[in-house]
Write a structure and sequence with these properties.
With 251 residues, this protein is α/β, with parallel strands linked by helices. The chain is built from eight helices and seven strands; from the N terminus they run H-H-H-E-H-E-H-E-E-H-E-H-H-E-E. It has one domain: Vaccinia Virus protein VP39 (Rossmann fold), CATH 3.40.50. Strands 3-2-1-4-5-7-6 form a seven-stranded mixed sheet, sandwiched between helices.
Length: 251
């Protein structure tokens, strides 16, 4: 899906149900998230992140953090308890509007609309942490590669990048019936056809672990850790990647 269409779909998702669109628990669809429950998931996410970084013995500077695909600000708000300034970016105007409204009293958070395949709203070498979770999976791989390069560009030397991404394997069919005997390549085609007319919709993509690692190796970062992460769904393998910027890239 091209970015113009991606923006249109996510703007509608954000207009209708911004909290559920950011965190799609089945029992919360239809504006059933309470704000406190929603924000608590962000606090838990960031607490887990900081424990993870401490476990790797990474001395992350606490200056500026970037939350890519911030949605309504679930993670950005929690990051603001750990960093001097947090910038959340999102492709959907409705999501940015929701984030600004929900967090207007949180002085350490800023939210910026970013509708391009780069991060032109962000300066090079300006963030100590770039974090993205449950976001890149909804973006076509050709854009994911471009955004990963941009993550590295905006990181300060010594800054840390952490992101999660599924692999490119087709999730298996679940439930009873003959559909379980359909080859997975055919399942993938059927699923894509069903999505064509849907509006709004969430596409899900992935990249092979080896491809992600190979791409990162060209970007001026040192890969620190890769761990299994199935937060996108238990049926499909996926990983969380952690890297440190080892050299400044040209703007």
């Amino acid at each position: 899906m091209r970015l113009t269409r991606l923006r249109r779909h996510w703007n509608e998702l954000g207009r209708k149900d911004p909290l559920w669109a950011a965190l799609t628990s089945p029992d919360k669809k239809g504006n059933k998230w309470s704000l406190e429950e929603f924000l608590e998931t962000g606090r838990a996410d960031v607490a887990s992140l900081m424990r993870y970084l401490e476990g790797l013995r990474l001395d992350v500077r606490r200056g500026r953090a970037l939350d890519f695909g911030c949605g309504a600000g679930r993670v950005a708000r929690a990051l603001a308890d750990c960093f001097d300034e947090v910038v959340g970016v999102d492709i959907a105007p409705s999501m940015i509007d929701a984030a600004k409204l929900l967090h207007e009293q949180v002085g350490r958070c800023r939210f910026l609309l970013n509708e391009t395949d780069d991060l032109q709203t962000c300066s090079s070498n300006s963030f100590d942490l770039v974090y993205s979770r449950l976001v890149l999976q909804h973006i076509h791989p050709r854009y994911v590669r471009a955004y990963l390069a941009e993550f590295v560009r905006v990181l300060a030397p010594g800054g840390v990048l952490v992101f999660q991404l599924p692999s490119d394997e087709t999730p298996p069919v679940t439930g009873p019936g003959l559909k379980n005997f359909i080859p997975l390549p055919i399942v993938a085609i059927v699923r894509r056809v069903r999505l064509v007319a849907a509006f709004p919709k969430m596409e899900v993509h992935g990249l092979p672990r080896e491809a992600v690692i190979g791409w990162l190796s060209t970007l001026g970062v040192t890969l620190v850790d890769v761990v299994e992460d199935r937060s996108h769904g238990a049926d499909t393998p996926g990983y969380q990647y952690c890297a440190i910027k080892t050299e400044p890239l040209q703007a």
